[in-house]
Every structure is written in C-alpha cells, then in structure tokens.
C-alpha cells in the first residue's frame, strides 16, 4: 500500500513549531554549514550568507516581471549586468539579463542563436550544436527543448575541448559551438581562443559556458593566475553564461546571460498580446522573476566588491592547491589534470575510488563523483579553507579502510541529482 498522501492541514500552525519541524527535517541533509559539502553549495562565510539572505528577504515579494511597478529591480538588474560585462570584457553595445540559473542562461543562449539563424533564413529544425563531451548537460536539455541536435565531441588528451575534432564535427547544418570556462566535470578551461577562431572562420555562434568561472576567473586572473582568454575579448565569443548563485555567492536563483550585441539579444525575448490579459513581454524564459534573487545578487556584488571577490578567489585557489598537493603525497591517490580555479578531481588507480567516496560520505563529506576517470569531484568554497586538515585526516583513514578491505555497507551512487 502506498503511504497516505500528505494533505493541507485544516488549521494553521504557529511559526515556532513550524521552524522547529523544518530544522528537524534538515537534520538528515548534507552538513554544508560546517563546510562538509563540496557540491551544490558556495559558502563564502556567515557575513556573505547573511547579506544574501537579508537582501533576498527585503525584496522577496517583488516581481521582476513588472519593471514599471518595480523600477528598483530593473535598476538592480541593469547594474548587475553592467558589473558582469565589466568583468567579462563586454564590448560597447554588449548586454544581458538575469535568469534563474545556469540552465536557463544556456537555454536562452541556444534559443537566441537558433532564432537568429531562423530569421536569417536558415533551416533550424535538427540543426547542430557542437560541444565538447565535458560541456554541461544543460546543452542537451536546451537542444531537446528547441528541436536541435547536440553533437558531443571527444576531448583532447588533456581533457580540454579539441578544436580540431570540433571543426570536423561542424557541418553545413551547424549553428553553434560551445566551450566551458571551466567545465563542470574536470574544472578545466577549454581553449576558447582556438574555438573563437573556428567560430569566426566558419561563421558560427560561440557560446562560452562560464557558469562556474564567470564570477571567479576574472578575480583569479587579477590575483595573478595565468588564465587563457575565455571572454568577450576574443572576437568570436557571441554569448557567455555566468552564474551568480555559484562563485558570485548570491542566493540561489540567479545567473546571467550576456550577448555581444543588442541585435543578437533581440532574438532572446518573447512578446505577445494574443489573449485577453494584455500585452506581455519577457526577456527570458521566466514569467515571474523573483525580486529576492535579483536583490540578493546585487547586494552581494556590492558587499564584496572587487577586493572581496579577489580575496575569496585567493582563498579558494590556495585551498585547492593545498588539497591537491596533500592528496598527491598520499599513497594510492592522485589528482587529475591541472585545474586553475576552485574545482579539482582525485581518485585512485590501485583502489576502488568509489569505495573511498563511500567512506568519506559515511564520515559526512558530501561531494560529487566523475565516472571518466572514476574520481571524486571537489568544488571548493572559501569555507573549505577551515576544514582541510580534518578532511585530509578522514581521507587517510578512509583510504586505509579500503586498502584493508572489509565490508562497506555505505550505498554509493555515481549520481547526485
Ligand atoms: C559549467 C556549468 N554549466 C551549467 C550549469 C547549470 O547550472 P544550474 O544548475 O544553475 O542550472 C552548471 C551547474 O553546475 C555548470 O557547472
């Protein structure tokens, strides 16, 4: 028999009791507040969390769908877009919008590219979007929604996009190329410069997915990290996605989609009056646009400022380097690739990596995994700086357990969504 369906209670409950119940519900969640979660959460410290929360609460009821009613949100969105374009080399005339997250930003980039091509008389049904294998699945989702074909191209040996192989995958029916800065699985920045040349040579739209790096890489570069070009300073880059709710440290529900020109963005929005409810115009996929998310992004950007973000980027890069060095010094473990930002991978070629993952999970350390190679995925936040020693101690113990064999009863999943 299936469990009883939850029902709306007949009478209300006071907030104190509800708050207690909600805290109890959270008892089984990943313990991100103690920096034991290296996926899903971007913890830049209590002060930043509090600014994000207060700003969200201040505008939680306002709706970005109505710029006439809420010029405050319109102004904040414009300022956030201006800041993002400033960080990402946006040329004169570049523009953008806030969206609910990376997936929506990517959907908007692919949709805009498709509709611009259709307006130019191209056949777009089944047209191609060529991406490296490491590009986020949000591109598959966008292609699925938009009736396009996604072509996933194998990577070069260094696990970055292979521009030669991508060039070979381009056919007369191809609209878009994608590179990541960095990609989610490996934390590596693709050779965007070569992809920009390819896009220009073949008249293609290049989208750079900087959902992870957009509000991190510019500050790492200011700190002296020698990053390759990945933004609008490369002439073939048509659009960039960059998430504020990742390394922008804003409340969830905030990303940015940037376009090189207004002429391009003209194909992003939707407007119609073909119903009795009046004319409606939306710049992105959303109808209602949560004022809280816009306000939170605006507030955190201003709270931290360039110096604040530089310091967070410095802490994360230093923590990553420290963890990688320590892990490489441990027997049976190794890291993969040469990431330059906040994301890295490690695993074992002599022991079962997913058994190690399971034993770390049992000790309360929640992170992602990668299947090729079999590896543990760490997306670090500034808060991880305080728990490195504890993590490494637990890792040594976990590895020793796996080396010693014995029954591991921890359910290990290669999926985490
Ligand atoms: C590189 C990259 N692109 C896109 C996304 C999708 O972002 P969201 O989960 O905000 O939709 C992610 C999420 O982790 C990502 O890492």
Instruction: Return the average pLDDT rounded to an integer.
Output: 96
Rg over CA atoms: 22 Å
- Give the class-level CATH name of the largest domain: Alpha Beta
Strand % is 15-25%
Strand order of the largest sheet: 1-7-6-5-4-2-3
Give the N-to-C terminal Cα separation: 27 Å
Query: Number of DSSP strands?
Result: 13
| Molecules bound to protein | pyridoxal-5'-phosphate
Q: DSSP helix count? A: 12
How helical, in percent, are the residues? 25-40%
- Please tell me what the overall shape is: globular
* CATH architectural name of the largest domain: 3-Layer(aba) Sandwich
CATH superfamily name of the largest domain? Type I PLP-dependent aspartate aminotransferase-like (Major domain)
Q: Please outline the major beta sheet.
A: 7 strands, mixed
Protein traits:
417 residues, alpha/beta, Aspartate Aminotransferase, domain 2, Aspartate Aminotransferase, domain 1, 2 domains, seven-stranded mixed beta sheet, four-stranded antiparallel beta sheet, 12 helices, 13 strands, binds pyridoxal-5'-phosphate
Please give a quick description of this structure.
The protein has 417 residues and is an alpha/beta fold. It is built from twelve helices and 13 strands. The protein has a seven-stranded mixed sheet with strand order 1-7-6-5-4-2-3, sandwiched between helices. Strands 10-11-13-12 form a four-stranded antiparallel sheet. Strands 8-9 form a two-stranded antiparallel sheet.
């Amino acid at each position: 028999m299936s469990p009883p369906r939850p029902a709306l209670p007949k009478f209300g409950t006071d907030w104190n009791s509800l708050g207690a119940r909600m805290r109890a519900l959270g008892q089984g969640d990943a313990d991100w507040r103690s920096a034991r979660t290296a996926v899903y959460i971007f913890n830049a410290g209590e002060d930043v969390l509090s600014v994000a929360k207060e700003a969200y609460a201040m505008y939680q009821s306002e709706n970005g769908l109505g710029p006439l009613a809420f010029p405050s949100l319109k102004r904040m969105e414009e300022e956030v877009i201006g800041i993002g374009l400033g960080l990402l080399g946006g040329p004169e005339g570049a523009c953008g919008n806030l969206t609910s997250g990376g997936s929506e930003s990517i959907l908007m980039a692919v949709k805009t590219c498709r509709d611009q091509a259709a307006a130019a008389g191209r056949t777009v049904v089944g047209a191609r979007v060529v991406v490296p294998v490491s590009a986020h699945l949000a591109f598959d989702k966008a292609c699925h929604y938009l009736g396009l074909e996604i072509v996933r191209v194998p990577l070069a040996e260094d696990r970055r996009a292979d521009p030669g192989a991508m060039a070979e995958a381009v056919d007369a029916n191809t609209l878009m190329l994608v590179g990541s800065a960095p990609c989610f699985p490996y934390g590596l920045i693709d050779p965007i410069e070569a992809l920009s040349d390819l896009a220009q040579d073949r008249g293609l739209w290049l989208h750079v997915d900087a959902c992870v790096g957009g509000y991190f890489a510019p500050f790492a570069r200011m700190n002296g990290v020698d990053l390759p070009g990945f933004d609008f300073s490369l002439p073939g880059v048509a659009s960039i996605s960059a998430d504020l709710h990742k390394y922008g440290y804003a409340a969830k529900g905030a990303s940015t989609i940037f376009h090189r020109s207004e002429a391009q963005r003209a194909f992003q929005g939707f407007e119609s009056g073909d119903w009795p409810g009046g004319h409606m115009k939306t710049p992105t996929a959303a109808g209602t646009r949560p004022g809280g998310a816009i306000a939170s992004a605006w507030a955190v950007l201003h709270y931290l400022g360039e110096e604040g973000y530089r310091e967070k980027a410095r802490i994360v890069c230093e923590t990553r380097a420290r963890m990688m060095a320590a892990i490489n010094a441990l027997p049976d473990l190794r890291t993969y690739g040469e990431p330059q930002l906040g994301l890295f991978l490690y695993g074992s070629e002599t022991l079962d990596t997913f058994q190690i993952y399971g034993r770390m999970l049992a000790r309360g350390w929640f992170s992602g995994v990668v299947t090729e190679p079999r590896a543990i995925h760490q997306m670090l936040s500034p808060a991880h700086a305080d728990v490195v020693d504890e993590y490494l101690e637990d890792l040594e113990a976990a590895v020793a357990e796996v080396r010693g064999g014995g029954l591991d009863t921890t359910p290990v999943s290669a999926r985490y969504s």
